[in-house]
From TrEMBL, chains A, B:
Catalytic activity: (4aS,6R)-4a-hydroxy-L-erythro-5,6,7,8-tetrahydrobiopterin = (6R)-L-erythro-6,7-dihydrobiopterin + H2O
Gene Ontology molecular function: 4-alpha-hydroxytetrahydrobiopterin dehydratase activity
Family (UniProt): Belongs to the pterin-4-alpha-carbinolamine dehydratase family.
Keyword Membrane: no
Designated name of the protein: Putative pterin-4-alpha-carbinolamine dehydratase
HAMAP family: Pterin_4_alpha
EC number(s) reported in the record: 4.2.1.96
Length: 99, 99
């Protein structure tokens, strides 16, 4: 994709964080993070598959860890050296997939 | 599943490690580990999906981390407090999926 977004300001990021649920900003990692908990692996994997399809479509991929029903997600935009609107697009979509 | 296997002896584990490719034993974590590298996310996700289906079928799930084309896998059998033949069944299958 062309016209990739640039790093958000702290104020922009804080405003965006207020629009999603359970995501926190990690200043050391310059990333937003959330741990999702599901009933079992099948539910967790369904969630991850939906997120994977969107990530591939957006060409913007998470760093994530899974064990059984738990999925720990980290989103950052390496090109921008920080968090951008792309990360919040993924965060919002993931909240929807997990709902 | 009934009749879950028990923890392998060190000798059994070493013998099994010699039958798989690139897996190492981590004594602190009582687990076998391997990092898989693929051409891109699509390939990595294809691999993970095949492994996920088998894991669910076996009721034996990995701990794994993914970022883009890289998948870091850890297999252990918590019930047995160590590595069992189940872990090597998954390791062997994953090597096949990645081939």
């Amino acid at each position: 994709m062309s016209d990739r977004p640039t790093k958000m300001t702290d104020a922009e990021r804080d405003a965006a964080l207020a629009t999603v649920s359970g995501w926190v900003y990690d200043a050391d990692e310059k990333a937003i993070k959330k741990t999702f908990q599901f009933a079992d692996f099948s539910e967790a994997w369904g969630f991850m598959n939906r997120a994977a399809l969107l990530a591939e479509k957006m060409d913007h991929h998470p760093e994530w860890f899974n064990v059984y029903n738990r999925v720990e997600v980290k989103m950052t935009t390496h090109d921008a050296d920080g968090v951008t609107t792309l990360d919040f697009q993924m965060a919002t979509a993931m909240d929807g997939f997990a709902a």
